[in-house]
C-alpha cells in the first residue's frame, strides 16, 4: 500500500485522491491474486489430486472426489487470502475479517457435509449396509454440524464466545425438543431397528395401517421408504415400525421356501368306497401302485384277522376314493421338482362345511420369486382339478346360471320331479 501511494504522490494528486485510488488498486490487486489462486487450485492442484485418485487401487477416494469434497475445499483459498489482507484496510479490517471468516466457516460446513455424504456412499458399497444402515446417524451428524456451524457463524458476527450462545440454548431446550421431536423419535427408532435387525433395505414388509406392501428402498432418520408392488411409494415414520406391528417377509426369502396353503373343495356326495374296478384302475397310476398294494394287503390281513364279513363294505376296513385321492396328491407333491422337500408337506382334510369337504394343500415351493411361486401353485391345482374325476370325485361349486338352465332343460324337471 505504501509503495502504491508513493507512486501516486509523484503525479501531484491530492491526498484524498491518492488514498481513494490506492485503495481501489489494492482491492483490484487482491481480487486478481484471489482469482489467480483459485484458478491454480482448481485447474492445477485439483487436477493433480484427481489424477492421483484415479490411478490408485483404492475405491473410497474416488467416492470422495465424486462428492466434490476437494472442489468445495478449494473455495477456502481465496477466503484465506482476503482474510490475511484485511490488515491493509485498517478502517474496514474487522468487517472484512468477519465476512471472510463467516465464508470460511460456511465452506468448512459444506466440506464436512460432503465428507459425511462420501462416508455414507462408501459404507453403502459394503453388504453390511443392508443389514446395518447408517443413514439415520449420518443425518443426525448433519443436524449437529449445522447447529454447531450456525452457532459459530453467529458468534463470529457478533464477536462473542460460542460457549455464551450455547449456555443460552439451555432455556430453549423445550422449544428445541418440540422442533426436533420427529428427529429424536426417528433416531431412537433407528437405533432399535438396527440393533434388533428388524428391517433392512431390500426387505419385503407389509403394514396395512399405512397401506404399505412392498420392498424397503431407503431407511432415513425420519422415514422408511417402501416401494409397493404397484410401484407407488409409501413413507412410513421410523418410530411407527417400533410402536406398531408390521410383517417382514425376509424370513421366507432367506429360508428358500414359500408357503402354499390352499384348499380343493370336494363335493361330499361324490365320496364313496372304492370298488374292485376302481382299485384296478388306481393300481395303474404310477404314484399309487405301491400304496394300493400295501393298503390292500394291510386291509385284507386286518379283515381276515378279525373275521370281518366283507360282503358289506360297511364292515371292517375299506379304501375310499377320497383317501386314495389324498394319498395320490401327497405322492404327487413328493415328486414335484418345484416343491421344497425339506419343509412341511401335508395334505389334510379340514372340517366340512357349506362348500363341501376342504382338502388343504400345505407345502412350500423351492422358489420364492412371486411370479414363479404363483405359476407353481397354479400348476399344482390345475393338475388336481384335472385328475379329481379319475377318482370319482367332483369339485364343489355353487350353482351357476348355466347349471339352472341345464336343470330346466332336463326331462326330470319337465316331468315335475
TrEMBL record:
Residues 329-387 form the Mechanosensitive ion channel MscS C-terminal domain. It is found in: Endomembrane system. InterPro entries: LSM_dom_sf, MS_channel_C, MscS_beta-dom_sf, MscS_channel_2nd, YbdG. Keywords: Membrane, Transmembrane, Transmembrane helix. The keyword Zinc-finger does not apply. It is a multi-pass membrane protein. PANTHER family: MINICONDUCTANCE MECHANOSENSITIVE CHANNEL YBDG (PTHR30414). Belongs to the MscS (TC 1.A.23) family. This is Mechanosensitive ion channel protein MscS. It comes from Paenibacillus ihbetae.
Amino acid at each position: 500500500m505504501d509503495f502504491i501511494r508513493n507512486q501516486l504522490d509523484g503525479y501531484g494528486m491530492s491526498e484524498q485522491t491518492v488514498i481513494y485510488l490506492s485503495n481501489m488498486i489494492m482491492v483490484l490487486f487482491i481480487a486478481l491474486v484471489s482469482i489467480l489462486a483459485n484458478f491454480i487450485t482448481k485447474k492445477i492442484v485439483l487436477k493433480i489430486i484427481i489424477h492421483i485418485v484415479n490411478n490408485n487401487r483404492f475405491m473410497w477416494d474416488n467416492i470422495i472426489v465424486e462428492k466434490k469434497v476437494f472442489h468445495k475445499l478449494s473455495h477456502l483459498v481465496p477466503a484465506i487470502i482476503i482474510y490475511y489482507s484485511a490488515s491493509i484496510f485498517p478502517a474496514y479490517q474487522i468487517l472484512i475479517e468477519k465476512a471472510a471468516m463467516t465464508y470460511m466457516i460456511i465452506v468448512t460446513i459444506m466440506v464436512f457435509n460432503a465428507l459425511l455424504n462420501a462416508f455414507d456412499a462408501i459404507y453403502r458399497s459394503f453388504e453390511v449396509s443392508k443389514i446395518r444402515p447408517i443413514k439415520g446417524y449420518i443425518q443426525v451428524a448433519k443436524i449437529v454440524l449445522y447447529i454447531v456451524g450456525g452457532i459459530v457463524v453467529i458468534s463470529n458476527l457478533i464477536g462473542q464466545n460460542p460457549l455464551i450462545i450455547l449456555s443460552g440454548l439451555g432455556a430453549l431446550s423445550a422449544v428445541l425438543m418440540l422442533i426436533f421431536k420427529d428427529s429424536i423419535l426417528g433416531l431412537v427408532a433407528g437405533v432399535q431397528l438396527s440393533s434388533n435387525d428388524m428391517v433392512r433395505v431390500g426387505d419385503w414388509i407389509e403394514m396395512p395401517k399405512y397401506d404399505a406392501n412392498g420392498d424397503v428402498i431407503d431407511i432415513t432418520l425420519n422415514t422408511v421408504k417402501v416401494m409397493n408392488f404397484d410401484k407407488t411409494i409409501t413413507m412410513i415414520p421410523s418410530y411407527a415400525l417400533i410402536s406398531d406391528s408390521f410383517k417382514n417377509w425376509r424370513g421366507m426369502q432367506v429360508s428358500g421356501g414359500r408357503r402354499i396353503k390352499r384348499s380343493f373343495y370336494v363335493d361330499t356326495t361324490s365320496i364313496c368306497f372304492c370298488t374292485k374296478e376302481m382299485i384296478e384302475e388306481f393300481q395303474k397310476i404310477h404314484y399309487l401302485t405301491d400304496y394300493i398294494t400295501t393298503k390292500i394287503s394291510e386291509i385284507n390281513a386286518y379283515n381276515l384277522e378279525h373275521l370281518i364279513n366283507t360282503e358289506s363294505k360297511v364292515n371292517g376296513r375299506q379304501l375310499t376314493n377320497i383317501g386314495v385321492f389324498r394319498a395320490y396328491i401327497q405322492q404327487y407333491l413328493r415328486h414335484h421338482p418345484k416343491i421344497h422337500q425339506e419343509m412341511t408337506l401335508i395334505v389334510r382334510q379340514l372340517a366340512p362345511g357349506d362348500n363341501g369337504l376342504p382338502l388343504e394343500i400345505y407345502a412350500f415351493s423351492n422358489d420364492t420369486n412371486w411370479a414363479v411361486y404363483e405359476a407353481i401353485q397354479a400348476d399344482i391345482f390345475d393338475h388336481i382339478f384335472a385328475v379329481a374325476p379319475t377318482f370319482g370325485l367332483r369339485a364343489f361349486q355353487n350353482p351357476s346360471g348355466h347349471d339352472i338352465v341345464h336343470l330346466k332343460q332336463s326331462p326330470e324337471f319337465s316331468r315335475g320331479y
